[in-house]
Amino acid sequence: MRNKSQCLSFSFLFFFFFFFFLFSCHQSQAQPSTTGYTCSANQTTYPCRTYAFYRASAPDFLDLASIADLFSVSGRMISEPSNISSPSSPLIQNQPLFVPITCSCNTLNPSHTISFANLSYTIKSGDTFYSVSTNNYQNLTTYQSVEVVNPGFVPTKLEVGDVFIFPVFCKCPDQTQLRNRVNYLVSYVLQPSENLSSVASRFGIETQAIIDVNGNNIRPFDTLFVPVARLPELKQPAVAPSAPPSRKTERKGVITGLSIGLGICGASLVLVLVAGVGIICSFKHINLFSD
Ligand SMILES: *[C@@H]1O[C@H](CO)[C@@H](O)[C@H](O)[C@H]1NC(C)=O
Ligand SMILES: *[C@@H]1O[C@H](CO)[C@@H](O)[C@H](O)[C@H]1NC(C)=O
Ligand SMILES: *[C@@H]1O[C@H](CO)[C@@H](O)[C@H](O)[C@H]1NC(C)=O
Ligand SMILES: *[C@@H]1O[C@H](CO)[C@@H](O)[C@H](O)[C@H]1NC(C)=O
Ligand SMILES: *[C@@H]1O[C@H](CO)[C@@H](O)[C@H](O)[C@H]1NC(C)=O
């Protein structure tokens, strides 16, 4: 009798651990989003107007007109939220800007919806999905996501003048966030020189508020969503600071992420094996004693 209930609880534990770790393995793979961010379960707040944080950058994006063109808005729509008094004067390298975007929930197939701003981009000479995502849109989207939303195109055969959708990552606040006075989730690409607390202080919020929305596993050049009640006032710089991007940090992050993922999955495999052996043992016990 006692052995039978022991066996039962063993099998229960086995299945518990099995599914628990199956689930967490799946989660850890799904974490960094390269193809796009799923819409929140309750989509009543889509579409919404939100903002992307953009840094003016040489050679092509040192004036409001070309940045406005890239995002299909007008120069004034950028200069007003960005505290720029003379929209026609040139910008300086890394000058911070808030670019308005319209964020919508897009159905790719019945089980997959992703949240992005649908921007049209006309291919110029030398462009690739990768170069436009990383240089023009500054990693506010990824080439993987561009491929997902433009199915049926061969990304290596782009013709000058072709028009593609570039899905700029965004999110709309859900009902709970709106109740907590989170009116915008600003799309922001983390730079190698930054960390979550420096981003939080730039927006005048707590670091934990960023972690609550984005988790803690954010690597340089990932897009994160900064929850704010209103946009902070940008202090437009007098001198251009420069932050050389570092590939090293990024690769180290990927390797760390990979080894953590492998570690979790490995540990769960061991646990499942141990639990399985436990069950077999308990079955053997029952047979021995009942004979
Ligand atoms: C979505 O939000 C609305 C408004 O708060 C609520 O009435 C509805 O029940 C929610 N639906 C789901 C599936 O959570
Ligand atoms: C994106 O916008 C274009 C028009 O600007 C429209 O034809 C297309 O269907 C939209 N795509 C999605 C996925 O919303
Ligand atoms: C975008 O990310 C890539 C690495 O994924 C990096 O090399 C590139 O410098 C980034 N672009 C910008 C504008 O920061
Ligand atoms: C975050 O970055 C700032 C400078 O940008 C630095 O002063 C601070 O020590 C960093 N904090 C952590 C926890 O790394
Ligand atoms: C706008 O930028 C100027 C510097 O260009 C700064 O002195 C001023 O405080 C800013 N205004 C606001 C409202 O942030």
TrEMBL record:
What SMART domains does the annotation carry? LysM
> What InterPro entries has UniProt attached to this entry?
LysM (IPR018392), LysM_dom_sf (IPR036779), NFP_LYK_LysM1 (IPR056561), NFP_LysM2 (IPR059143), Plant_RLK_LysM (IPR052611)
Has the keyword Transferase been applied to this entry?
A: no
Question: What keywords tag this UniProt record?
Answer: Membrane, Signal, Transmembrane, Transmembrane helix
Domain LysM positions: 119-166, 186-232
Q: Where is the signal peptide?
A: 1-30
The name of this protein is LysM domain-containing protein
Give the originating organism.
Citrus x changshan-huyou
